[in-house]
Amino acid sequence: MLPHLGRRVQMSGRDSAGNINMTDGHFSWLREVMLDLEVIRMGRREDKARMTRSKILTVADRMIGEHGYEDVSVDELVAACGIAKGTFYNYFESKEALIQALSQAHFADVTGKVEDYATRPPVQAVEEYLLAYMGVIVDARIGLARQWVRYIATASGSHGKWDQDRRDLSRLLDLMVKAGTLGSGLSVEGMSSFIMTQMYGIVLTWTIAESMVNPLEAVRGFSRNQLPEVMRPYLTGSGGFSTVARTSSEKTKVKQ
């Protein structure tokens, strides 16, 4: 230590008990360093937390796909993840909460584009949203879809997945109402419930009769035959109808 710096520490850098006075101006640099170190430590903890949560979701997705929701316990899941049971509950308050988080993760790419869909004519916007939604389910393969249907049917007292799906679609409809492309007389909740009922029906029939139902073509059929009619009273201008379904229907016969 340089002599003049040492004298400053002795004279103004310590309190009467000889402790370093961190509020002293000469030590402002040290405070900044300590704050930076704390920020780094917090960042590392947050990174570790994100990695742990992501690992739980990834392992749970695989195990549920292989064994089914009912046959995967929290104990088995934490053992496969190599974490303590208490760690699991730091991230998810219940197994049901984990399933909802899995659903949100699967559909994040779809729900994250709601604002973009909302810029299209209303019928086209809903059609494209539903095709993207059903595409996620198809890409996950029918085995996982069957487990999803089984979970929905057996999760006693739980409507989390259904409620989330309706909320996501309601957000799209609400954006178009606010933009003025859909009339304010539209019951957003009622319309989203009606549409999602159709989507759930498509998934259910696909899991029952895989060879007879093409989910994406079924969505296109719904978008061509039903969606325009139920939305027609609420369209505020021309151009509310999609050309996607019409073009597709000319090339492909919908399997029912």
Automatic annotation (TrEMBL):
UniProt entry tagged with the keyword Transcription: yes
Pfam family, one: TetR_N
DNA-binding region location: 73-92
Superkingdom of source: Bacteria
Protein's name according to its UniProt entry: HTH tetR-type domain-containing protein
Every HTH tetR-type domain range: 50-110
Annotated keywords: DNA-binding, Transcription, Transcription regulation
GO MF terms held by the record: DNA-binding transcription factor activity; transcription cis-regulatory region binding
Lineage: Bacteria, Bacillati, Actinomycetota, Actinomycetes, Bifidobacteriales
